[in-house]
Amino acid sequence: MPPDQAPDSPTADPAIVVVAVPTPLRRCFDYLPGNEQPAGGWCCGVRVRVTLGRRQVVGIVVDFRAHSDVERHRLKPIEALLDQTPLPADWLWLCRFTARYYQHSLGDTLANAMPVLLRQGRPLEARTRTRWFATEQGLATTAEQLGRARRQAELLGVLSQHRHGLVASAITAQGFDQAQLRGLHDKGLIDSTREWLAAPERRSGPVLAEPSLTLNHEQSAALAAMHEGLDRFHPVLLHGVTGSGKTEVYLQLIEAVLDRGRQALILVPEIALTPQTLERFRRRFSVAVVALHSGLNDNERLDAWEAARAGRARIIIGTRSAIFTPLAAPGVIIIDEEHDSSFKQHEGLRYHARDLAVVRAQHHAIPIVMGSATPALETLRHAHQGVYRHLRLTQRAGHARPADMRLVDLRGRPLRGGLGPQAMKAIGEQLDAGRQVLIFINRRGFAPSLSCHECGWIGECRHCDARLTLHRQPHQLICHHCDTRLPVPDACPSCGSADLRPQGAGTERTEETLSEAFPDTPVLRVDRDTTRRRDALEQTLTRVRRGEPCLLVGTQMLAKGHHFPHVTLVVVVNADGGLYSADFRAMEHSAALLTQVAGRAGRASHPGQVLIQTHHPDDPGLRLLIEQGFDALAEQLLEERRMARLPPWRHMVLIRAEGQDASMLHSVLEEGGNALRVWLGEQGLAVDCLGPVPAPMERRQTRWHVQLMLSAERRSALHRATAWLDEWLAAHPGSRRLRYSVDVDPQEM
Ligand code: ADP
Ligand code: ZN
Ligand code: ZN
Question: What ipTM was estimated for this complex?
């Protein structure tokens, strides 16, 4: 267990310094203090360089002790002190909580939560520079008074002319040296400050750079409710249909927070995909806004982190990992599209940024707003229970009307590029009327598989339980799970027939079909393959926003937060993906995605239409979604989960194990599960342990994947059971031949 209540005030002369180092081991290590001592005294949060085994690693001081369980002569001293002042206390607190809650190594959590350069041991000062300026006394001093120190007099003259001083590099560029600087400094004629390189633009004047919109009745009521909770922990679900003006409510809430001199942290699913959102924040406010996204280099990342820590940045917008940004004066946290699965990290430290945000807001006693048109069932349940305040926006803002959704039966219909005759006809009509159409297809590439018409052979990945997707550009068979790439065979590898046929449709095939059917209309494709270049997506979107007739074909990249005011028809090529999945969340996610996609249509004055193609037009879930909307379906799913004793009614932990030897994996987990059940019985803990069962894709990248599932109504019991099993597994001799991980609140089964 990570040490919990460590002192935050300096400790004089500690006997033992406890350091969290980046290792998967769930323990910290004892060191002797060494010769150096931080300027402000020993504190938790100071980075140090230590020897671990034969490696030198960067760790963080997390505790002090009077005694160690290790014999003194075997303890190593700290090699080097990397910080004079500790990393921020609120940040350290959040990392400790995260490590404990997700049952992850504290050292690894800390390493995950800091910018790469700090993780590598770079001093914070590496990104600062020195600025020299003349003091009052210096300004009053004449060249004559400096006598024979001619160069010093010249330097003082130069500095006196620069009211804001000069940075050290500019001074040396003029031929002055350190000795002259030191000479003047010793006489008290000049002084220096350290400033951060590349600080965000500091703007002055009023907080608002452009006027806010006049809110409609529902928006005003929501904002008023949020204003009531500005100075305390106040969790809010802002549950508003797409286009209902949630972002405008965030903006006006942020305004109130900025007026109090505080900062706003905004988490979004994917910034690179939504530059307009960022642009909207920058346009509205005259304060410094920093964006943390995957396009930043290591220096820029550190600069942004430091600007937030020091309070120079007032608005911080970022994706999942931005939850670990330290804040000088936290005022509000906003999670946009809170249901989005990208907030959960699916490997290593498997945290959920939304859940951590709630805990963090509570710690700071500040409001948190979770916004969505399709809230996660977890969030909805909290709202129903009154744990979160439930605010609704039921109308689209401005003049847009809700789109009309319809199921289209595909059974027995001829398909071209995945599209049936009804969709083709509707597309043609919209194009004739000079409008735009969006075609949503959940599969990139040309076709989901390639098969032999003679013998039924299907191209499969050698390393995974998965079919190979046929791509046109490049012409290859590609595994979407391990990225294995193979040339497309000319003849069937099994029977030699040349009659190989692509099965089903991906974005490339739909694009091809549409180009053939509508040769006069540009077809724009948006998927991971067409948007590898950073600005490619933005260029496409700009074209769409200009409003000329076009066909937009894309994957879920298009479903998130974009406004397409000229799109009047949305076609969903296949809605069946979520209907018969092994994952109990599949229907929830599928319904959210359909609703989000549908929300792209008809934002401006033209009403929108949504055609949803399916082979299961009678599926009760789909029908409920179409006829009564996401909220009605969500209520039903919640009820089903309750009956089935699934989250959010119960809590879950998944132990995932992988290795080369499937039977060994099964037997270790079998043994572990049995031992755990015995222990649970002895302890009288109500925790269910299911498995071991094969993971949904049992073989991935040549390794086998097996899992154990723990669930309980009470988190504390589940937590204890997980910790016990984790220790058991770590101690098991077989554990060296397998890798396992603990996933608390798993989002994927
Ligand atoms: P959401 O975030 O709920 O999808 P947005 O905040 O992006 O919705 O608003 C959708 C559109 O409606 C935007 O173009 C926005 O400028 C406009 N809008 C929002 N609120 C208002 C309002 N009160 N009056 C007029 N237009 C508004
Ligand atoms: Zn064949
Ligand atoms: Zn593969």
Answer: 0.96
